[in-house]
Amino acid sequence: MGRFFIEGMRTDSLWIGEWIRVSQALSLALFIGAIVV
């Protein structure tokens, strides 16, 4: 979950729309996947 917040501080990010960064979406998906497994 920390990675999600760290990626939020980056200034060189690729965005999905105008509200979430690709790296944040990926880290959140991996976090949820780890909980499920």
Automatic annotation (TrEMBL):
Arranged from A to Z, the UniProt key words for this protein are: Glycosyltransferase, Lipoprotein, Plasmid, Transferase
Where is the chain membrane-spanning?
none
| GO MF annotation terms | phosphatidylglycerol-prolipoprotein diacylglyceryl transferase activity
Q: Tell me which EC number(s) this protein carries.
A: 2.4.99.-
Q: Which domain of life is it from?
A: Bacteria
- A Pfam family (short name) is LGT
Q: What class of enzyme is it?
A: transferase
A Gene Ontology annotation in the biological process aspect, one of them, is:
lipoprotein biosynthetic process
Protein name in UniProt: Prolipoprotein diacylglyceryl transferase
The organism named in the record is Enterococcus faecium
